[in-house]
Design brief:
Blueprint lengths: L4 H11 L5 H8 L21 E2 L5 E2 L2 H11 L6 E5 L5 H9 L2 E6 L2 H13 L5 E5 L12 E6 L8 H4 L2 E11 L5 E8 L5 E9 L13
Parallel strand pairs: 3-4, 3-6, 4-5, 6-7
Antiparallel strand pairs: 1-2, 7-8, 8-9
Helix pairs in contact: 2-4
The structure holds S-adenosyl-L-homocysteine.
């Protein structure tokens, strides 16, 4: 029997080093075609980023796998995601964590993502339309934080919203490509950082977006 497009994508992720079985299962159970604009439906199962509404992008599956694996999410964790976008990454986090708190600065993207999650019966996601620049202080501290838009520099305000031993992953840099960084909070309130490689993300932009 010939390989399906999903099987081919999952094999490609494993060949690139995504080995965490729970992450692979969460991705295999999340239909990416639900999150991709109609125009690009035939590219849903390719390992590439795809344009979505509002000039944003749905991340490349490999990068979603890499970031999710680096977070080492456990079933009891509360996770903060900044940049809901299509909601694809959110859906994967929701299958691994207890609760996902997600923030998006485009109201229309947030509402579309919410509809998709309802269709998939994902019910542990809490949404906020707003500016994620300063995290979500009312819900802090978090076990994990994922930023899916490029941070200009060290995110000290967000790191303050992590629990001790908490992990935060996100792209950092001011250019068209950035470094994907993994921060771990130490018990004394400091943190270590590790460089996971070069990535290309849309920038984190302060304030909510005006639409229509
Ligand atoms: N993980 C998403 C990727 C979305 S791209 C997916 O898989 O589809 C990054 C998203 O971050 C965009 O939707 C953008 O609008 C949002 N964003 C950028 N700056 C933001 C901010 N300050 N607060 C909240 N969301 C922001």
């Amino acid at each position: 029997m010939s390989e399906t497009r999903l099987e081919r994508l999952m094999r490609s992720l494993q060949e690139q080093g995504i080995s965490d079985k729970k992450v692979l299962a969460a991705m295999a159970h999340t239909p990416r075609d639900l999150f991709v604009p109609e125009l690009f439906l035939d590219r849903s199962w390719e390992d590439s980023a795809i344009p979505i509404n509002c000039g944003q992008t749905i991340s490349q599956p490999y990068i979603v796998g890499l970031m999710t694996q680096a977070l080492k999410i456990e079933g009891r964790h509360r996770v903060l995601e900044i940049g809901t976008g299509s909601g694809y990454q959110t859906a994967i986090l929701s299958r691994l964590a207890r609760y996902v708190y997600t923030i998006e600065r485009y109201r229309s993207l947030m509402l579309e993502a919410e509809i998709r999650h309802k269709r998939l019966m994902l019910e542990n996601i809490i949404y906020r339309f707003g500016d994620g620049w300063d995290g979500w202080p009312e819900q802090a501290p978090f076990d994990r934080i994922l930023v899916t838009a490029a941070l200009p520099d060290e995110p000290l305000g967000l790191l303050a919203q992590l629990k001790p031993k908490g992990v935060m992953v996100g792209p950092q840099g001011k250019g068209s490509t950035q470094r994907l960084l993994r921060y771990v909070k130490t018990p004394d309130g400091g943190y270590t950082s590790e460089d996971l490689g070069e990535v290309r993300f849309v920038p984190l932009i302060a304030g909510v977006a005006k639409e229509g």
